[in-house]
Write a structure and sequence with these properties.
- This protein is mainly alpha-helical.
- 81% of the residues lie in helices and 4% in strands.
- It contains seven helices and two strands, in the order E-E-H-H-H-H-H-H-H.
- A two-stranded antiparallel sheet has the order 1-2.
Length: 213
């Protein structure tokens, strides 16, 4: 599809009808804004329900940033060297960082901070989702190759399944809270819990990375 934008809400497509392109772009923008709003509202509710400690919430948010940065950096390094399946390597690194940081939060704030930890993880992910969604909505109305690529994606994309998208946002957050509770409750048994925690985080990270690829 070749599309050109002359102003907000105005698109012309060569392979797809103009009205069809405009309509799909508008729908894509609304869906993106809706999902971002849902994730932000959900994260805020979790934060209120958790009741703190706010230090654990902030630490968990930082843990999400660290795990995401580690996965992204691994993708860049592994892709440059072309060694092994990049997604699997990145997922493994993300799982290791996630589990290690969950253990740190659990040992510092204790198992009772698991809800705050889950809320912090979810909040960081929601903020990132909202920022990326806003950037994509902006790109949808831009001229040039950036806008064309975004509009082409909007036209070709299948209707999102809200339950699935929200589930893959909530599940890693709850998993992080679970590891905080387990490792904070029984640090002596960490050698037994860590392998299972790393394995589940690996599966979650691998699925998430494959969906994003």
């Amino acid at each position: 599809m070749s599309a050109h934008v002359h102003g907000p809400g105005c698109a012309h497509g060569a392979g797809t009808g103009e009205n069809d392109v405009v309509g799909r772009v508008a729908v894509a923008r609304r869906r993106s804004a809706t999902f971002a709003s849902l994730t932000l509202a959900g994260a805020a509710c979790l934060a209120v329900v958790s009741g703190g400690p706010w230090g654990a919430l902030a630490a968990a948010a930082a843990c999400w940033v660290a795990a995401s940065a580690a996965g992204a950096a691994t993708i860049q390094v592994a892709a440059g060297r072309r060694s092994g399946p990049v997604v699997v390597v990145a997922a493994a690194v993300t799982a290791l960082v996630t589990t290690a940081t969950a253990a740190a939060v659990g040992l510092v704030w204790g198992p009772e901070a698991w809800v705050a930890a889950a809320a912090g993880w979810a909040g960081a992910a929601a903020l990132a989702q909202a920022a990326l969604a806003a950037l994509w909505r902006w790109a949808l109305l831009r001229p040039g190759s950036l806008g064309e690529a975004a509009r082409d994606q909007a036209v070709r994309a299948a209707t999102p399944r809200w339950a699935g998208r929200l589930g893959w946002w909530i599940l890693p957050s709850l998993a992080f809270g679970l590891w905080v509770w387990l490792l904070g409750s029984a640090p002596v048994t960490a050698s037994l819990v860590l392998p299972a925690a790393i394995l589940l985080q690996l599966l979650l990270a691998r699925h998430t990375l494959r969906r994003a690829a």
